[in-house]
Amino acid sequence: MFGALKNKLASFVKRVAGREEEPEETAKEEMVRDAEKFVPPAPKQVKAEKEPVAEPTRPKAFAEEVVEEQQREHELQPEFKTVFDDSREAKRVLPVPPVPAPDEKREDEGGPAGQRERGKKPAFELKEEKRELTPRVGILKKVSGIFSGSVIIGEEETNDLFEELEVSLLESDVSFDTAQFLVDDLKKRLIGKKVPQNAVSESVASEVRNALVDVVSLPSYEFFERVNQKKPFVVLFFGPNGGGKTTTIAKLAYHLSKRGKKSVIAASDTFRAAAIQQAQEHGDRLGVKVVKHDYGADPSAVAFDAIAHAKAQGVDVVLVDTAGRQETNVNLIREMEKMNRVIKPDLKLFVGEATSGHALVEQARKLGEAVGGLDGVILTKIDCDAKGGNTFSIAHELKTPILFLGTGQDYEDLKPFNPEWLVDNIIPAS
Fold first, then answer.
1. How many other β-carbons are positioned within 10 Å of the β-carbon of residue 315?
2. pLDDT band per the 50, 70, 90 thresholds, residue 303
3. Could you give the CA distance from residue 207 to residue 230 in angstroms, rounded to a whole number?
C-alpha cells in the first residue's frame, strides 16, 4: 500500500540530507569485473621441454663448411634458415613461425606474452574514476557543522531536489495544485532550517511528515455521533460507477448495528437490476430491512418510501443508495438533484475509489456542486492503492473531510479516517 509515494519521499529525504551512499565498487573494479565475463582466465603455465636433437653423423669438415655458409647467408638473409636433405645438400627455406606455448597468446591477439616482448600497450586501459558526492546541504555548511554540531539546509543546494519531488508527487497521483502546495510548504519548512549535524535525515523526514499530516487534517466530525442528532437520520450516497457505494452502505449498516442503531437501506439504484439484488443480498446477511421497487422505478420514490418506513418503525438511520454516475451524464445528474430536493438528506457523502487518480477529484467536485455541497468523503479500496497520492488531492482541493477508508471486502473493513495512520503508512514517525 502506498509503495510508490513511500519510496519517492524516502528518496527525497535521503538526498536532501546528503546521505547518498558511496558506490560499493570503484569504476576500475567494475570494469575489471565486466571484462572478466568475456575474457577467459589464462591457463596455467606449463614449461615446454626441449626435445633432444640428434648429433649429425656428417663428417666434421663438411659440417664446418655448412656452418660457415649458413652464417654468411644468415647475415644477408636472416629470414631464411638452412636445412639438409638426404643428399647432404644445404637448402634455404622460409622460416616456420614458432608455435606459442600453451600459456601464451599470439601477439596480434593482444596476449600478455606478445605485449611483454614487443612492449605493446594492452588492448584497453582501465582508468579509475573518482565519484564525488557533494552533500546536499552544502560542503561549507557541512564543514562548519563539524565544529558547531549543526547544519543549515540551503536553498541553492535543494532547488533541483524540490523540482524532482514535484514530479514524483505527480507520478504518485497527487494533483498538480496539491503537488505545488506541498513543495512550497516544504520549502518554507526546510530552507534555512538549522538541524543537528548527526540527525539531518530524521529532521527532514519529520518536516515532510508534518506537511503531509497538515494537508489531510481538516475540521471533521464523528459519523456515529452525528446520526444521533435526529430520528430518522437520512444519509444520501453518490459517486461514480463501481466506486463501492452499495458495499460501503452495507458496512455502515453493520457498524451501526454493532452500536445498537437500527437502519434501513433504500435501494434507489433502479438504473441497474443487479444493484437492487445486491442491496437485498446484503440486507439478508445483516438482518437489515431493504426498501425496493422494480427495475426502472423512480429513485426518489424509493427513498421517500424508505424514510416513511423508518418513521413508522422507529428506525434510526436511512441509508440511500443511488446509481453510479459520471459528472458528464446530464440526465443522471438531474436525477440526483431531484432526489436531493425530495428527501432533503441530513448528510451527503461521496464514495469513490482511492485508486481512481486525478479524475476522482473532478468527479467529486461536479457531483458536489449538483447537490449543493459535500458533507464528507469515503474512499474505498485503499488497500489496493499502490501510489497513495489521491487522498491528499481530495482533502486539499475539495476541503471536505474524509470520514472513512475502505480497507477490504469484509463488513468490518471500514476504518474511520485518521491522518496520522495514513501518513504513518508512508513516512513512519521517528
1. 20
2. very high
3. 42
**Domains, the chain, ordered by start:** 3-10+137-216 (1.20.120.140), 223-423 (3.40.50.300)
| Closest CA relative to residue 386, chosen from 356, 414, 410 | 356
Intra-chain end-to-end CA distance of the chain, in Å: 20
Amino acid identity, position 9: L
Residue 156 has pLDDT above 90, yes or no: no
**Is the sign of the CA dihedral 240, 244, 248, 250 positive or negative?**
positive
Q: Which residues contact 336 (CB under 8 A, 6 or more apart)?
A: 238, 322, 325, 367, 370, 371
One DSSP character per residue, 266-288 reads EE--TT-HHHHHHHHHHHHHHT-
* Residue in the block written with cell 455541497: 373
**What pLDDT, in 10s, does the model give residues 339-393?**
999 999 999 999 998 888 778 888 889 888 888 899 999 999 888 866 778 888 8
3-state secondary structure of 72: helix
User: What residue spans of 221-329 are helical by DSSP H?
Assistant: 223-226, 245-258, 273-286, 299-313
Residue 405 in grid coordinates: 477508508
Nearest to 17 by CA among 209, 204, 210: 204
Residue 216 contacts residue 419 (beta carbons within 8 Å)? yes
Radius of gyration of the chain (CA): 41
Q: Which letter does DSSP use for residue 317 in this model?
A: E
Q: Which DSSP string do the residues of 353-422 spell out, in sequence order? A: ETTSTTHHHHHHHHHHHHTT--SEEEEE-GGG-SS--HHHHHHHHH---EEEEE-SSSTT-EEE--HHHH
Cα(145)–Cα(153) distance, rounded to whole angstroms? 11
Peptide bond into 232 cis (omega under 30): yes
pTM score: 0.66
